[in-house]
Amino acid sequence: MRILVCKDYNEVSQKAAQMILSQITLKPNCVLGLATGSTPIGMYENLVTMYQQGLVDFSEVQTFNLDEYLSISPTNEQSYHYFMNEYLFNHVNIDKNHIHIPNGMADSMQEECIRYEQLIKDVGGIDIQVLGIGHNAHIGFNEPTINFEKGTHIVELDESTRQANARFFNHIDEVPKYAITMGTGSIFKSRKIMLLATGTSKAQAIHDMVYGKVQPEVPASILQFHHDVVLILDEEAASLLLDGDYKRV
Ligand code: F6R
Question: What CATH number has the domain spanning 2-248?
């Protein structure tokens, strides 16, 4: 696990965008695994700027998002479909047929989970997966539990996750209770993983992920076993790590 520590959120966002740019430059038809939430917003803004400057071409890129709330329409401002259009897809030359986000409105959610997992397989897997991390160390919406879930599945969101995400809604009661998410297994199969975290509120989760026992109660801890993971942190998120264990960039 490579750990890079940047001065602040802006530098984390720039560094992350540069890594995506390098990936697309190396393999123009690459498959990106994407995340939502507050953390990657700066990375998406940097990517849009890079696109406007002619530095990156999304025309052959395919994307797979980690997750979506259940029973929220893609046009709802709180949906992850809406988020991705707003922060990235509406501003770059991606082919709309190359965008994949789990459908939280499918008639059969069981079939949707199978379909999504199969789609990832059909394109040959994810080249680089972007992750944020929850305060409880969730990745995607894989909440702490008693086993690592392999594939895309339906999950009941933790109360702490609903509280954390309530800032995007008018009231906590509006935050959905269920979501569809790629499993820790689906995430783990990605060729590269880049996890972003900023702020002191993420420091404990980062500490537990890096040093703790690998266990489903700390979902991100599984990344200790992955052969190509880079964490891009600001100083606050890295504040519980030992100096020698990371590189300042
Ligand atoms: C989002 C996702 C979540 C978030 C995590 C951190 O697609 O899968 O795991 O990455 O909840 O969210 P923020 O960045 O808002 O702190």
Answer: 3.40.50.1360
